Amino acid sequence: MAGSIFSDLLAAWHIFRIPLFIGVAITFVAIRAVSRLRASREKLSSSPAPSSPALDSKKEAPQEWIAPNSLDEKTVSRENNNAESSAAEPISEKEVPIKKKTDAAPKRVTGTKRSKSPKSNGADTPRAPFKVQPLVFYASLTASTQKSAEGLFEVMKTALAASSRAERFLEPQLHDLSYIDYDDFFIAPPKIVEDEEAEVLYFYMILLPTYNIDTTLDPFLDHLQETHHDFRIDTAPLSPLLGYSVFGFGDKEGWPTEEDGFCSQARQVDKWMAKLTGRKRAFPLGMGDVKSDSKERLEEWRLGVQEALADIVEKGGLGEGVSGSGDPVESDEEEEEEEADAEVEAEADGSSPGDSDAGAQAKLRVKRRRNKAAAVDDLEDLGSKLRKSDENNNNAEQDSSSDAPLAVDFTTYGKKKSSGSPSATAPTAKEMVPKTSPTYASLTKQGYTIVGSHSGVKICRWTKSALRGRGSCYKFSFYGIKSHLCMETTPSLSCSNKCIFCWRHGTNPVGTTWRWKVDPPEMIFDGVKEGHYKKIKMMKGVPGVRAERFQEAMRIRHCALSLVGEPIFYPHINEFTRMLHNERISSFLVCNAQHPDQLAALEQVTQLYVSIDASNRDALRRIDRPLHRDFWERFQRCLDILREHRSRQRTVFRLTLVKGFNIDEEVTGYADLVERGIPCFVEIKGVTYCGTSDSSRAGLTMQNVPFYEEIKEFVIKLDDELRRRGLSYGIAAEHAHSCCILLASTNFRINGRWHTLIDYDRFFDLLAEGKPFGPEDYIGPPTPEWATWGHGGFDPADTRVFRKGKNRKDASEAGETGESVVNDAVDSSPALPGISSAPPTHTAAETETCGSADTPETPSHSAPRAGTCCSSNSNSANGNKSESKSCCRSEEEQLEEEGAATEEPEFHANSTNVVVNTFA
Ligand SMILES: Cc1cc2nc3c(=O)[nH]c(=O)nc-3n(C[C@H](O)[C@H](O)[C@H](O)COP(=O)(O)O)c2cc1C
Ligand code: SF4
After folding, report:
1. Where are the transmembrane segments (predicted)?
2. What does each C-alpha distance from 489 to 456, 564, 607 come to in angstroms?
3. 919: Cβ–Cβ under 8 A, 6 or more apart, which residues?
4. Ligand 2 mean position to 562 CA, how many Å?
5. Atom of ligand 1 nearest to the CA of 263
6. pLDDT at 376 exceeding the cut of 60
7. Which of 239-243, 340-344, 876-880 has the highest mean pLDDT?
8. Beta strand pairing call for 607-612 and 586-591
9. Structure confidence by residue, pLDDT tens digits, 751-791
10. Ligand nearest 417 Cα, by number?
């Protein structure tokens, strides 16, 4: 029985065991699942209640960072929180727990993205009483904007002081943009000064001209743009300003509409300021045409800005939706650009949260892409310019394969951004001085022959004077150069300064980079020789021209690369000087110390000049008005290069003294520069007064032209200072006739005699040998006695002729000492073919030139001032006219009376305020 039960159970087991196992397994799994679910539910239900979103940022730290009793221990205020995270969203005023941090805790910066289009624009809640500091900024090249800004500044000062809320305004300040450091004002407002009574906030007024050429305005615009795009800086770093407004000056005659470029740079500045301030345009952009309505427009603008200022103090901000709030619809262009910016932001924001650098990295990537694109544009521009240039000349291949590097200044490579201006969009290189340009007309009127598109040649009064046996320029006295054998030319009419004494009458092309079509050197060489000979030939009918000198003059022996402009700016300058030397024409090259790279790459010339127009940064800025912002560094680098090249180049410092600008108290400064550059020679001359409207606007009058006595006094002091420093220099020679004195290194004093003359034949022979050589290797014969210090420097073989209003007595009283006075008597004897005391062959002279170049003859007025420009003419302004006129007139009148031929009308200074020249 028992056996049958057992076998039944066994049979049942076999039948049910599988379902049983499955059931047990299912039950087990079900129990496990339920128990896990329970456990998780329990966990969820036991988590703390969610905190305020404002506190989320504090919750990132692990739980153990929170001290259990911290609630009682410490609280943090909103201010403290903001101090750590300036851009944080407003948080509740309720006190919140602070977390104790371990040293290892990463610093977490919290905040929110600033809206790209702030709508409040300063119309936010009225501020606590504050004071307004108005700042007036201006830029100016030819002083007209400066004058307007100064006028506006004065009126504004008076108006604010007289206003009913005068106590809320600090006295306005005036700033020239080319003097200030942009970082001090245009990355963030100046450091806020706490007044005794209230906070001080700033308001900017910006007055600007527009130039479709490279000027100091370009770096300013670049700065604004870069600041806006700089990923490290908030896109609106100037938003703490109370407001801003811009006024532009333009010329509707040349740029009739905005599309043509009228006031384009002021418009750009206005646009960038809107972005940088978060649209705090307090009053709309004003624009005035300098030739018609600029005064009225400026006055309207001033009144509008004043109203906006009154609103600001009244309402604590710009106000919303009212005129001048800066809020109303911006231009499409601005919106488009903001969209582009938003793209950048979007890409930046697409980065993973928590990676604090990712946003910046993404911005950087976009920025790099933009820069790369811009760089490609620039290179393409350059390429197309060069291609175009090459197409335009048959010698393209020869040029490009030339071993001379194309000296392009990459230090300022910003593209022209004058929206709408022709130059901004021109895809190919333009001519520097097109035949149809006002510059061409002005230069030809002044007597220049324009060769190709960027070179010029001119003969000067010294050449004419030498042809007539009436004396050569100081270069004959100092270096043995006969003026009638000299050609004065420049392969670049453009330069990077706007010197107050420049002869180019403000119409000159300027630029920091070469961005024009490049003419081949052969074409320039042939063209300038042809132009020079043509002008010499015009002299053949002039009474008094000596036949033998006329014949000699038909063989150029010397070339002064100065005139106006900057010769080393020309990319093929080395090829050009080689051509001169191949024809045994010596080269004197004058540069303005602004292009160190080109200077360093310059091959050997017979004499290398650097213009030293001031002894310190401020004076140099005032006198040369350089376009480069780093002009002083460039200047100093050029002096260093001169010193480095002293063993192979015969170097000269040319000092141009301008009374009231660069003489007083500057001897020590000049001695510092001499000590730095160690030139072979230092030529000191007085400024030549050109009487242009540009120079008079810059404050230059005849009163700034020093007397010869003053120059002598200065030279004696400088000589003493150099000696005191143990520098071996001495006063070697003088040319009182052109108010020029020469200091020389004692290397050029041999056996107790100065040897400042040059052995030109030796120079060419040494060049032909191809071995290295230096200036001491081609020293010429002794300086003639009559040219040495104390003897006046007028060649006794020539005839000194006084013009009307000047006589020998005047000259004597004037301090034109020694031999020059003895030679005053009109000597009618024919000049000897071989001039006594002079070196046998070479002579030449530079002509009247720019400040970086030479001095014309002492003026005719009896006062022995250094010089006036006798080629200057048309632009002379106001009272200065007559001075310039009287100087020019006597010489030219004299020639006219003598019946000089008039063969080339365009060559004559035929203007209203200068007598018609009979020739050059
Ligand atoms: C070379 C040159 C380029 C100029 N380019 C422009 C231009 O693109 N748009 C414009 O409206 N005015 C242009 N002007 C006119 C000047 O902006 C105007 O004369 C201004 O008043 C000069 O101011 P400033 O004397 O303070 O330098 C140009 C003037 C010069 C001499
Ligand atoms: S003086 Fe000479 S360096 Fe100065 S602006 Fe004129 S051309 Fe240029």
Report:
1. 12-34
2. 6, 8, 15
3. 464, 535, 538, 539, 542, 895, 900, 901, 902, 903, 904, 907, 908
4. 9
5. 11
6. no
7. 239-243
8. parallel
9. 999 999 999 999 999 999 999 999 999 999 999 999 999 88
10. 1
pLDDT at 818: 31
Convert 371-399 to b/e letters by CB count within 10 Å (16 or more is b): eeeeeeeeeebbeebbeebbebbeebeeb
Whether residue 497 has its Cβ less than 6 Å from ligand 2:
yes
ipTM above 0.90, yes or no: no
Examine the pLDDT at 210 and tell me if it is beyond 60: yes
Q: Atom 6 (ligand 2): residue with closest C-alpha? A: 502
Domain 433-907 superfamily per CATH:
Aldolase class I (3.20.20.70)
**Greater pLDDT, 115 or 904:** 115
What pLDDT was estimated at residue 704? 82
For 38, other C-beta atoms within 10 Å of its C-beta total 10
- Which ligand approaches the C-alpha of residue 656 most closely? 2
Q: How far apart are CA 785 and CA 538, in angstroms?
A: 34
Which residues, other chains included, contact 678 with Cβ-Cβ below 8 Å and sequence gap of 6+? 642, 643, 646, 727, 745
pLDDT at 639 over 80: yes
Using pLDDT thresholds of 50, 70 and 90, give the confidence band for residue 701.
Answer: confident
Retrieve residue 76's tokens: 């943090």
* Proportion of the chain above pLDDT 70, given as a percent: 61
Instruction: Say which CATH architecture domain 130-330 belongs to.
Output: 3-Layer(aba) Sandwich (3.40)
140 C-alpha to center of ligand 1: Å? 9
Q: Is 490 in the pocket of ligand 2 (CB under 6 A)?
A: no
Burial state string for 688-714 with b = 16 or more CB within 10 A and e = fewer than 16: bbbbbbbbbbbebbbebbbbbebbbeb
Pocket of ligand 1 (CB under 6 A): 140-146, 209-213, 249-251, 254-255, 261-264, 290, 418, 421
Q: Which of 141, 210, 268, 269 to mutate to test the pocket of ligand 1 (most atoms within 8 A of CB)?
A: 210
> In a 3-state reduction of DSSP, which class is residue 505?
coil
* Backbone conformation region of residue 707, classed left if phi is above 0, alpha if psi is from -120 to 50, else beta: beta
Whether residue 102 is predicted with pLDDT greater than 60 in this model: the reply is no
Sort residue 46 into left (φ over 0), alpha (ψ -120 to 50) or beta.
Answer: alpha
Calculate how far, in angstroms, residue 499's C-alpha sits from the geometric centre of ligand 2.
Answer: 5
At 290-335, the pLDDT tens digits run 999 999 999 999 999 998 999 888 887 776 543 344 433 333 444 4
For ligand 2, the distance from its centroid to the CA atom of residue 303, given in whole angstroms, is: 39
Mean pLDDT of 477-494: 92
| 436 or 75, higher pLDDT | 436
130-330 and 433-907, same CATH topology: no
Mutate-to-test residue for ligand 1 from 177, 207, 211, highest number of ligand atoms within 8 A of CB = 211
Ligand 2: which atom is nearest the Cα of residue 504? 6
Tell me the per-residue pLDDT of 153-187, one tens digit each, with 9 for 90 and over: 999 999 999 988 898 999 999 999 988 888 889 98
φ/ψ (deg, to 5) at 420: 85, -20
Query: How far apart, in whole angstroms, are the C-alpha atoms of residue 362 and residue 371?
Result: 14
Which atom of ligand 2 is closest in space to residue 851's alpha carbon?
A: 1
- Where are the domains positioned within the chain? 130-330, 356-429, 433-907
Question: Closest Cα to atom 4, ligand 2: which residue?
Answer: 499
Q: Count of residues for the chain? A: 920
Q: Are 458 and 475 in contact (CB under 8 A)?
A: no
Q: Which of 433, 442, 498, 499 has most ligand 2 atoms within 8 Å of its beta carbon, as the pocket-test mutant? A: 499
Quote the ligand 2 centre to 203 CA distance (angstroms).
37
Nearest CA to ligand 1 atom 18: 250
pLDDT of residue 689: 67
CA of 503 to the centre of ligand 2 (A): 7
Could you tell me the pLDDT band of residue 78, with boundaries at 50, 70 and 90?
very low
